[in-house]
UniProtKB/TrEMBL annotation, chain A:
Subunit relationships: Heterodimer composed of CysD, the smaller subunit, and CysN.
Chain ranges of the Tr-type G domain: 16-229
Domain of life: Bacteria
Organism (species): Actinoplanes lutulentus
Gene: cysN
Protein name in the entry: Sulfate adenylyltransferase subunit 1
PANTHER family the UniProt entry points to: TRANSLATION FACTOR
Pathway of action: Sulfur metabolism; hydrogen sulfide biosynthesis; sulfite from sulfate: step 1/3
Phylogenetic lineage: Bacteria, Bacillati, Actinomycetota, Actinomycetes, Micromonosporales
Function text: With CysD forms the ATP sulfurylase (ATPS) that catalyzes the adenylation of sulfate producing adenosine 5'-phosphosulfate (APS) and diphosphate, the first enzymatic step in sulfur assimilation pathway. APS synthesis involves the formation of a high-energy phosphoric-sulfuric acid anhydride bond driven by GTP hydrolysis by CysN coupled to ATP hydrolysis by CysD.
Similarity section: Belongs to the TRAFAC class translation factor GTPase superfamily. Classic translation factor GTPase family. CysN/NodQ subfamily.
Keywords: ATP-binding, GTP-binding, Nucleotide-binding, Nucleotidyltransferase, Transferase
UniProtKB/TrEMBL annotation, chain B:
Keywords, in A-Z order: ATP-binding, Nucleotide-binding, Nucleotidyltransferase, Transferase
Keyword Nucleus: no
GO BP term, example: sulfate assimilation
Protein name: Sulfate adenylyltransferase subunit 2
Domain (Phosphoadenosine phosphosulphate reductase) ranges: 33-256
Region (Disordered): 281-303
Family matches, as InterPro entries: PAPS_reduct_dom, Rossmann-like_a/b/a_fold, SO4_adenylTrfase_ssu, Sulfate_adenylyltrnsfr_sub2
EC number: 2.7.7.4
Family the UniProt entry places it in: Belongs to the PAPS reductase family. CysD subfamily.
GO MF annotations, alphabetized: ATP binding; sulfate adenylyltransferase (ATP) activity
Length: 432, 303
């Protein structure tokens, strides 16, 4: 491997921001090599880890150091040479800290991909330049758009094996761009790389003079994510009520939570749902003292000027900009349970923001083929890893927005009431 | 809406906000949470986060120390002082006591890391704890890299890596039947360097052994162990006084020091940023046993 080029600067690290990205793919695409390369070039692979991987590779009879063994942490994965689960990896450059949610690419792991994408600011999809787009690349792009990951990077890998032919790049880029246009896809960047040789990873390569875009790492460091956050719609799901039982602090009643969206300021008029009662923000507290404003993803404690009955699961918003108070929900649901399918009439626990309710499946409008995007309206159920449009009715109202407008107040999970397993992930299309 | 401010959040602030969110979720949804406190830097950071999550109220749950009996005196002193300052209820689950009563048997090599597990599980049962905060981070070890923030444990405290609940957005599923429990790892997304930056930012005091000091040590397979009541010189070994610090604090019979002249938090940050060996690889004899040592211990109910 070539020399490491970037060194996390200890002093600058305190001011950097955080980017979460998801990768999907299999060893064949060179995904593990790419992640290994990013970690290596940012000096994140440690010598003892590399030694352990070298030893393990040699004992398996691998011809090269298998960097997949860095991320495949479970015994079963190492024995079978497959990735089963989402693995989280961390690296940093002087500008940013990165969290990678590394997920397996095959269709039987759709639930893992959906999980990894749910918190991602950016998704990275890899294709082999020799093979071009395959079914899997389209599926990954679709899931990225379904989960509304704001930025998408297509890495056309193994460019060294097609002699850095610009025509190969152009053909794949054109095909992907026109496919992505149909998906209502987010911001798209396409980069020709060789993960194995490190070309266009940490710095621009002289092998692709015709490519004028950034290197992958440069793009990851500079992609603008601040405006992805919704700073318009004030949504503050109340998590926990802080009422100190103490002789020194008396009469304190604060509503603790994490700002889902919007900007809160002391003095703002607010409305509390589902009661609809209104008040003003008296102060926004943190352990370090009161703050002048709170915005996502800050965890704060809000105090109001009036004593009104507020508990966990309630939502603080603005009188003229509120989420729906809704018991009828239409949503895309990704089913995640291998033991039983989702069926009309099924009853589940639903967890949405800090609110938990019960729900019944009123209808399954269609099941979506995640490879062809064909809608099967005759489908009677959703099996493991299947996605469909579903109608739900809840026992108590949810305080909900469309997922496309707000990933925090638009997403929910379904929990099986007997096994307690998380069986479904939902993205709200309509709430009323 | 015209934006005049960037509304930027540093990565440390984002990590802190996430950890605080997780702690509040647990407090809101569980009956009997407890925070596992070893006096190590990660549990110290976790305790600070708990302080911040519930301010101005006190931390609303007890802390528990699984005491192997192989302790660094500086760490015990720190533990007791911190617990007193915060007015916390401290539960001590003693491995020595468990050996004396026959719950566990001392291993032939005298190490107590592995026999902590039954002691931990017995304490969970005795106090009926349903959520246990642990300071584990995903960057520490490859099995941990796959573990959830809310990690479900059956009635035997076991982790089943192939049967984990998907964790989406910030929706954590803590539901469980009586007798089952959830291990919660609020520092999952923190790295060793993040922890040190946070210690610097928050001016958090640590036990003195985290900073460079002179100590009588003996070198074994490239690691430097303090010579004390738990680690005695073997035939042919010689000790020497070196400038060292502890990068992790575990069982005193198995935790090694690293050679270091970092005697301030800023120097430690520089050292950690430049190091080429992971913290567990550099300091923990027990992790060197096999490729899957951690996974196997976690399956048995380990932290």
């Amino acid at each position: 491997m070539s020399q490491a080029v970037l060194e996390p600067d200890a002093a600058a690290a305190r001011g950097m921001d955080l980017l979460r990205f998801a990768t999907a793919g299999s060893v064949d695409d060179g995904k593990s090599t790419l992640i290994g390369r990013l970690l290596f070039d940012t000096k994140t692979i440690f010598e003892d880890q590399l030694e352990a991987v070298e030893t393990a590779s040699a004992s398996r009879g691998d011809e090269y150091t298998n960097l997949a063994l860095l991320t495949d942490g479970l015994r079963a994965e190492r024995e079978q040479g497959i990735t089963i689960d989402v693995a989280y990896r961390y690296f940093a450059t002087p500008r940013r800290k990165f969290i990678i949610a590394d997920t397996p690419g095959h269709i039987q792991y759709t639930r893992n991909m959906v999980t990894g994408a749910s918190t991602a600011d950016l998704a990275l999809i890899l294709v082999d330049a020799r093979k071009g787009l395959v079914e899997q690349s389209r599926r990954h792009a679709f899931l990225t758009s379904l989960l509304r990951v704001p930025h998408l990077v297509l890495c056309i890998n193994k460019m060294d094996l097609v002699d850095w032919d610009k025509a190969v790049y152009d053909k794949i880029a054109d095909e992907f761009t026109s496919f992505a246009a149909k998906l209502d896809a987010p911001d798209l960047t396409i980069i020709p790389i060789s993960a194995l040789n490190g070309d266009n990873i940490a710095s621009r390569s002289d092998k692709s003079p015709w490519y004028e875009g950034p290197s992958l790492l440069h793009h990851l460091e500079h992609v603008h994510i601040a405006s992805d956050r919704n700073l318009v719609d004030v949504r503050f799901p109340v998590q926990y009520v802080i009422r100190p039982q103490s002789t020194t602090v008396t009469d304190y009643r604060g509503y603790a939570g994490q700002v889902a969206s919007g900007i809160l300021k002391p003095g703002d008029d607010v409305m509390v749902l589902p009661s609809g009662l209104t008040s003003k923000i008296a102060s926004i507290d943190t352990a370090d003292g009161p703050v002048e404003e709170a915005f996502p993803p800050m965890s704060v404690t809000v105090r109001l000027t009036d004593e009104i009955d507020i508990s966990r699961g309630d939502m603080i918003c603005r009188p003229n900009n509120a989420p729906a108070v809704a018991q009828d929900i239409e949503a895309m649901i990704c089913w995640m349970d291998e033991t039983a399918p989702l069926r009309v009439g099924g009853k589940y626990t639903i967890k949405h923001t800090t609110r938990t309710a019960r729900t019944v499946v009123r209808g399954l409008q269609y099941r979506l083929d995640v490879n062809t995007l064909h809608r099967d309206e005759s489908a009677g159920e959703l099996g493991l890893n299947e996605i469909g449009r579903v109608k739900l009715r809840t026992t108590v109202p949810l305080l909900a927005d469309e997922y496309r407008r707000n990933r925090t107040t638009g997403g929910f999970i379904l929990v099986d009431e007997s096994t307690n397993r998380t069986v479904g992930a939902g993205m709200i299309i309509e709430a009323r | 809406m015209s934006q005049t401010k960037p509304y930027r959040v540093s990565h440390l602030d984002a990590l802190e906000a996430e950890s605080i969110f997780v702690m509040r979720e647990v407090m809101a949804e569980f009956e009997r949470p407890v925070l596992l406190f070893s006096g190590g830097k990660d549990s110290i950071v976790m305790l600070r986060l708990a302080e911040k999550a519930f301010a101005p109220a006190r931390i609303p749950f007890p802390v528990m120390h699984i005491d192997t009996g192989h302790n660094f005196p500086e760490v015990l002193e720190y533990r007791d002082r911190r617990v007193a300052t915060l007015g916390l209820n401290l539960v001590i689950a003693s491995v020595q006591e468990a050996i004396d009563t026959g719950l566990v048997r001392e291993l032939p090599d005298g190490t107590r890391n592995r026999i902590q597990t039954p002691v931990l599980l017995a304490a969970v049962e005795k106090y009926r704890f349903d959520a246990l905060f642990g300071g584990a981070r995903r960057d520490e070890e490859k099995a941990r890299a796959k573990e959830r923030m809310f990690s479900f444990r059956d009635e035997f405290g076991q982790w089943d890596p192939k049967n984990q609940r998907p964790e989406l957005w910030s929706l954590y599923n803590g539901r469980h039947h009586p007798g089952e429990s959830i291990r919660v790892f609020p520092l999952s997304n923190w790295t060793e360097l993040d922890v040190w930056h946070y210690i610097a930012k928050e001016k958090i005091e640590l036990p003195s052994i985290y900073y460079a000091h002179e100590r009588e040590v003996v070198e074994r397979s490239g690691m430097f162990y303090a010579v004390n009541e738990f680690i005695k010189l073997r035939d042919g070994e010689t000790s020497e006084v070196r400038q060292v610090r502890y990068r992790t604090v575990g069982d005193a019979s198995q935790t090694a020091a690293v050679l270091s002249d970092a005697d301030t938090v800023d120097k430690v940050i520089d050292e950690v940023a430049a190091t080429r060996i992971t913290e567990r690889g550099a300091t923990r004899g027990d992790d060197r046993v096999s490729e899957a040592a951690m996974e196997d211990r976690k399956r048995e109910g380990y932290f």
